[in-house]
Specification:
Number of strands: 28
Number of helices: 28
Strand content: 15-25%
Shape: globular
Structural class: alpha/beta
Radius of gyration: 31 Å
Largest sheet: 8 strands, mixed
Amino acid sequence: MSTRTAVVHDVPAGRPGTSHPRKEGPTDLRLVPPALAVWATAAVMLHASPGWAVAVVIASVLAAAVLLTARGRLPPVRRGSTARARVTAHAVAATLLCAAAAAASAGLHGADVRRGPVPELAREYARAVAEVEVTADPRLTRPRVSGNHMAPVSVLIEADVRRVERAGAATRTTRAPVLLMIAPGDRKDPAPSADHQDSPWLALLPSTRLRVEARFAPAISGGDRFAAVLRVDGRDGPQVVGGPSAPQRLAGRLRGGLREATEDLSEDARALLPGLVVGDISRVTPELDQAFHETDLTHTLAVSGSNFTILLALLLGPPGLAQRAERRGLAPRVGISLRTTAVLGAALSLAFVVVCRPDPSVLRAAACGSVALLALATGRRRSLIPALATAVLLLVLYDPWLARSYGFLLSVLATGALLTVAPRWSEGLRRRGVPPRLAEALAAAGAAQALCAPVVAVLSARVSLVAIPCNLLAEAALAPATVLGFLALATAPVAMPLAKAVAWCASWPAEWIAQVARTGAALPGSGVDWPGSWAGAAALGAVTLVVLLVGRRLLRHPWWCAACALLLALLVVQPRPLTRAVTGWPPPGWRMVMCDVGQGDALVLAAGGNTGVVVDAGPDPLLVDDCLRSLGVTRVPLVVLTHFHADHVAGLTGVLRGREVGGIGTTALEEPADQVAAVRRAAAAAGVPLTRVAAGERRRAGDLTWEVLWPPPGGHPAVEGPNDASVALLVRTGSLRLLLLGDLEPPAQRALTRSPAARDLAGVDVLKVAHHGSAYQDPGLVRLAAPRLALISAGADNTYGHPAPSTLAALRAGGAEVLRTDRDGALAVVPGAGGDGELEVARH
């Protein structure tokens, strides 16, 4: 969402080039019905058969012809009635003709996906050689935990197939949109690294023609606009048969220069500046991307109308002086006339589209930015809604797939909010004594959030409570970061040292935006879960309407407003004493917490005060970070990674984030290699030493002591893979004994029962069941441990059947109470009030 607005202020009448908002008359809505008709028709007809598309076109054209023919035959009923009826007939006919055009365009685009040899090959999962033309910038997939390993990172490229060659068949010419998925080949490290960033596939520019040998497959995930997915082996690099066009080469040099100019900046600045300027988010880490999502700041990471508006404001003047734009900004200061300024604005629009790639999202940004151009140049609110409707109509006719795009919907909603709702809210706030600039900013952020929040809830199943303040804080830095970023982009090809200096200046506001996002996302109550469906969106819309109606009345009562603001602040900040008093979490005196991290393991052992030892980090940095923040753990003397499977180590960066970590202890078996490399990179980036642990080691942190039981130093025949090499710990905390088994399987479990440490295993208080409660357990170890409480960490509805019914039955038969995170949430072990080894469990 964009919070950039163009608010029209009252100015003295009679001044050339100005207009008084109150004298503009009613808003012109004549183009709104055609725009909505085009949008709805395109959304419906994209997947319709050609016959239906033709039928809709013919029916719409015939209906329009009938209306236009009959309008002249209407008998007058009273003066002016015939004229009004003719106008209405014209409007309905225009709407029908626009719907016909949309049906034709959507039918043609939909046919590109369904016809020709490409869908046939995809249905057969056939291999073939294709000549394709790249249509968008290549991008890397995000790292993703799949079971106990990390799914390999691939390069994704959107392209159009032009020719297909299949063994034993003639070459066929076609045109079908596809998605190339470039497999990493023989790369063993699936996490994004310098190797992936330097991949020759990522250097390809739009309009480049390639010859690829691929396996065709149906497009399943988010691929309704693609005829197929082409899986390509990326080991040999791309085979280029036609270079990019001259404009794309120029754009590539400019974008490459910006990346080079930002190379030496901090991690946040080098990631954000290319995103703010040209929409290049390849350097944005998953953690930072998630922070922007949770604070509804994602519009700053993509090319949006706000980028274009900032550049136009630099040329024409600030939005707050829209009706005097020709006498503000750079253009009038150097003596350029208003008409010449308009030509420069059009040239700036074209350059913006070329540099940021002429794909639909950039064209959408330029069109929505053009609405701001009209506002800045004329200061007439009455002309803005027709301009927005025209932009929607033309863009959907050009690319009907926009009718099904959530990004397009959010852009239109945000722009419409800024043009219609925000000015009225701003005027109302000013009447109540709010300073004009603050009123404009509050109204813009509030209006955009109110209209866009229901759609965002459908996408993320979450409602941000910090979106408005975070947008307000980020807005102050967005303009300087964008302007300086574009200046660095322009100077990089001719003066790289100057570009680096400008980029360094731009890094300060960029880092501010990143810090706002991280701080907002780190607040305990930054958002609330919400049903991710259109029914949930409707419910949120109703709630928003009620809040607005109640809030309007509350504005008359400052004390009630202050009380509501304080309540909201407490809900967002959630001070630990208050949270503990209300929710009972974390329970006083907790000794161990099994975090709810889905299908993975993450435990925290209390070591006094804000200190805790962490055993495994789970599959998701955000989940383990949330768990540690809820416990108030800021100091971690040791992180024990029982083994290197992704569901135990992929969340390590979440443990390291913002905490004092003394060291990381790992098992000696360094498999799988990709996760070992990822752990080493995370530890090196945080400056935390890595050590190996082995059976026989004893350590202490505060009143917490633990002994390493497994694996033995020098290896053991029972170690048949990463699971059997898991670090097993016997922990003593107060009067309780806890046995943590990692993911040990029966061979290692049996060997552990025969080891010298077996005598210490009898009758433990708490057992962390091995391998998420899988069926592969040694009955002898279960009988020996005879735990009073068995805890299992597993993901809800996981596909592995964890925990296994046989394991649950064996534990209960031995007298253990069994609790599991997939049903009970996070679990805290607390010594009983009566002492003598009693224990209690709190759920969260």
